[in-house]
Amino acid sequence: MRISIDGNVCIGAGQCALTSPDVFTQDDDGFGTVVPGREDGAGTLVREAARACPVQAITLHDPADEART
């Protein structure tokens, strides 16, 4: 799995960082970002963190799904 955060959509609510702090953090402006080296989505509560985002700025990319398209 690969994670991306749409910076144009993120409002900096911080739910991702609260839910899965080993994968998500906030930048100096308070917007969500993926911890460097964790873009592969390996970590705890990643799916829950994506669901917790109030504006759905987090996308989880499943390589198996991408291969089918």
Question: Any overview of this molecule?
Answer:
InterPro entries: 3Fe4S_ferredoxin, 4Fe4S_Fe-S-bd, Fe-S_cluster_ET. This is Ferredoxin. GO terms for molecular function: 3 iron, 4 sulfur cluster binding; electron transfer activity; iron ion binding. Keywords: 3Fe-4S, Electron transport, Iron, Iron-sulfur, Metal-binding, Transport. Ferredoxins are iron-sulfur proteins that transfer electrons in a wide variety of metabolic reactions. By secondary structure, the chain is an alpha+beta fold. The protein has a single domain, classed as Alpha-Beta Plaits, CATH 3.30.70. The chain has three helices and four strands. The chain has a two-stranded antiparallel sheet with strand order 1-4. A two-stranded antiparallel ribbon has the order 2-3. A hairpin with a 5-residue loop joins strand 2 and strand 3. The radius of gyration is 11 Å and the shape is globular. The mean pLDDT is 92.
Mean pLDDT, to the nearest integer, reads 92
Strand content: 15-25%
Question: What is the percent of helical residues?
Answer: 25-40%
Give the termini separation.
16 Å
Beta strand count: 4
Give the oligomeric state of the chains in this entry, treating copies of one chain as homo and distinct chains as hetero. Answer: single chain
Q: Mind telling me which CATH architecture this is? A: 2-Layer Sandwich
